[in-house]
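Appendix B. Raw example, untouched.
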Amino acid sequence: MSSKINEQERLFEITKFERRLWDDGVEYIAGMDEVGRGPLAGPVVVACVIMPRDPLIEGVKDSKKITNINRREAICQNILDTSISVGIGSVDNLEIDSTNILIATRKAFAQALDAMEITPQHVFVDHVHGLDLPIPSTMMVKGDAISYCIAAASIVAKVTRDRLMIKAGQEHPMYLFEKNKGYGTKDHTQAIKEHGLCPLHRRSFCKKFLLGNGASEIGRRGEQASKLYLEKKGYEILACNYKKMYYGEIDIIARTNDVLVFVEVKTRSTDVYGSPAEAVDIAKQKRIIDAALSYVCENFETEQQIRFDVVEVFPKGNRCKVNHIINAF
């Protein structure tokens, strides 16, 4: 009896935000949450769930706190049976690699909302930076722990993604996806080192596991080769590894013919990831541009002509092949 009372008290507590809107006549309140931003393989999945005011489902909480798989499956089914509307969004590893995980996550949120048969009047969202929804919404930090609707969405999203990864484990048994769900466990990373990548892996997430401890050394070698190459071409090197908080790092800043050149160096010892320049995605370009503008403001009082280049470096034995892309973006 005591545990029953405690569960009712817990459900009362995590519906306090929903009850405020329900009491104001807002009937269709949705929770949205994502699963799968951090794994090395598989999609990112978002669920959007509108739950009724009554009945409240026992056991609905942050999906990460429901460790028993069978219980999580049962609660998920109860949510699906009780819910007013459910929408699922999913963006695969290929698109994650071609954009980045934040852009992919935002797209999955939009897909989930579009998939709803009933449009929510208000949405509670487990906070995602830069998310822009077309309907009234409330962003909550750790929302799956304090909002009933977000917790319900977190369970649906996790069960949906787990099922996808269990199926992937049957298709690619050496990676044990059915156990690790694509996350970077010891067995999973060891399998990557032994077997390489499968079509479900996020190549942008897996570089360090394939390159190993030599990755930083390869990067330094590439930057040194780029610096020597530019100097031979008559460039004046102004700075290397310029770092600006929030924006990241610019590998080389140089000058040629009164033009400031901001250089991103990409070094690859293998073509398994595609061309090095492809790694400089739109999000990376924006960070470089913002850092470059900061550098100009800090170091010059007059307007400067600027340019953004990418230098691809391919180590070959004791030598490096260099490909200089001028005005890369």
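End of appendix B.
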